[in-house]
Amino acid sequence: MRNPELKDKVEELEIREILRALREAGWVKSRAARLLGLTERMFKYRIQKYGILITKKAVVKNGKNAGRNLKREILTNE
């Protein structure tokens, strides 16, 4: 029988490493996958498995889109 505490710890570690790799790779999934030694498919599976959502969010200045900054945010289902 599996130890639920161990499973939780492994999941937490995987999530932490996925987020670290994404930051180091400039939020590019293919680069992050390479950093972890995973294929893109395996990496995308884990992102989906843990409910990690990476979105682009435009920051609008003075009501205009000219010169907008892109901001990355991470949302995890907890």
What are the segments in which pLDDT stays under 50 over at least 5 consecutive residues? 58-73
Classified by CATH, the class is Mainly Alpha
Q: Give me the secondary-structure category.
A: alpha+beta
Looking at how many chains there are and whether they match, the oligomeric state comes to: single chain
What's the overall average pLDDT, rounded?
Answer: 78
What is the helix content? 40-55%
How would you explain this protein's 3D organization?
- Helix content is 50%, strand content 29%.
- By secondary structure, the chain is α+β, with helices and mostly antiparallel strands.
- The chain has a single domain (4-76), classed as Homeodomain-like (Arc Repressor Mutant, subunit A).
- A hairpin with a 2-residue loop joins strand 1 and strand 2.
- The chain is elongated, with a radius of gyration of 16 Å.
- It starts with a helix and ends with a strand.
Quick structural gist:
By secondary structure, the chain is of the alpha+beta class. It has three helices and two strands; from the N terminus they run H-H-H-E-E. It has helices spanning 4-24, 29-36, 40-49; strands at residues 52-61, 64-76.
SSE layout and pairing:
Elements: H1 4-24, H2 29-36, H3 40-49, E1 52-61, E2 64-76
Antiparallel strand pairs: 1-2
Main attributes of the structure:
78 residues, alpha+beta, 3 helices, 2 strands, 29% strand
